[in-house]
Amino acid sequence: MPHFIQKVVVLRKKLCLGTSILPPLTSTPTTKKRASEKEREHLGMAVTGETAAKLKVAADKYRSFLHEEGQNIEWRHGGPPIYDDVNKLFEHGRTQEWPKGSLEEVVQNAVKSWELELSHKTRIQDFRTINPDKFKLVVNGREGLSGEETLKLGSYNALLKSSMPEEFKFYNADEESFESSHDVFRSAFPRGFAWEVIRVYSGPPVITFKFRHWGYFEGPFKGHSPTGELVQFFGLAVMKVNWGGRKRIRGFNNYN
To answer: Which string of DSSP letters, residue by residue, matches 179-224?
Structure first.
């Protein structure tokens, strides 16, 4: 799997949640409890301790650099994550199944691998998908974020930060930390939030593509009861890459 991201620009997302954005607030408080190892598997978290010692994990077919031999990787949860549930969601809900080795599949897997590193590795020097010295993430025309800045914020906060009026913000990135942002999404979408490439418009070194992100609102979200409905959005992105030699992403321009 090539590791080639240099810059990504992401465009305006269209959010679709069925008939309503959120159900009415409920008065029943939710109890936050520590996830069991089985629950951690379902949430795409790392399994550690005795279970990890006994578990032989096959390489993820959609993500490179998940199980690296001889690498001193610092994983956020003590070990590499398990993506079984979100992979099932992806396979059952995707609208496209790209041929193996196609540009669409390469781009799709590159972004999934980048997200893996951003969500589960704690040191930028452990990233294999990007060039840390050149990488920039630009979302909706805002000032670009470096690799370190993106890692500090986390993918959800970096991508969902918005200048909309407060009353329209169902998710406020300014109020969330890296950890709380992931807790929110794992709670609301227990099977994960799947991602696919819908179309690639131009080839390397500047790759423009359309994507879809989706999941099912099956868990509580900040006091709102789950409805089970599909939540999805679409966006455009421009990814600048080093395509020759050691391939890495230099940047993302994201319009969502």
So the answer is: HHHHHHHHHH-TT--EEEEEEEEE-TTEEEEEEEEEEE--S-BTTB
pLDDT of 227: 98
What's the length of the chain?
A: 256
**Percentage of the residues of the chain whose pLDDT score is greater than 90:** 58
Q: In this structure, how many other beta carbons lie within 10 angstroms of the beta carbon of residue 123? A: 15
Q: Report, as an integer, the average pLDDT of 4-16.
A: 52
Residue 245 has pLDDT above 90, yes or no: no
In the chain, what are the domain boundaries? Answer: 4-23+37-255
pLDDT: which is higher, 141 or 104: 104
Cβ atoms 113, 64 nearer than 8 A:
yes
**Where does 24-83 have alpha helices with state H?**
37-42, 49-54
Phi, psi dihedrals of residue 229, rounded to the nearest 5° = -80, 160
What span, in angstroms and rounded, lies between the C-alpha atoms of 125 and 147?
Answer: 10
When pLDDT is averaged across residues 143-152 and rounded to a whole number, the result is 95
- Distance from C-alpha of 24 to C-alpha of 27, rounded to nearest angstrom: 10
